[in-house]
User: Which sequence fits this backbone?
């Protein structure tokens, strides 16, 4: 069997999808207040990340810079 990419092969016309470029979002004062509230309630980071549409790493890094812990196990 010879795979030459001829007109009968469906894979020959497929193009790789481009990765979605994510832009950076500034932290608003409302975001910071919400992060502190979640910290006090010991909300799991995964739950906060989904709600705020930010990565876990971004949340943890911001909390570290602001000087408070994050997550339910700390």
Assistant:
């Amino acid at each position: 069997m010879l795979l030459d990419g001829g007109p009968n092969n469906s894979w020959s016309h497929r193009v790789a999808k481009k990765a979605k470029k994510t832009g950076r979002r500034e932290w608003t004062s409302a975001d910071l207040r919400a992060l502190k509230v979640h910290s006090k309630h010991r909300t799991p980071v995964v739950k906060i990340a989904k709600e705020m549409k930010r990565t876990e790493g971004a949340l943890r890094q911001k909390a570290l810079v602001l000087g408070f812990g994050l997550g339910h196990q700390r």
User: Anything to note?
Assistant: The chain has a mean pLDDT of 87. The two ends are 59 Å apart (CA to CA). The CA atoms of residues 24 and 51 lie 17 Å apart.
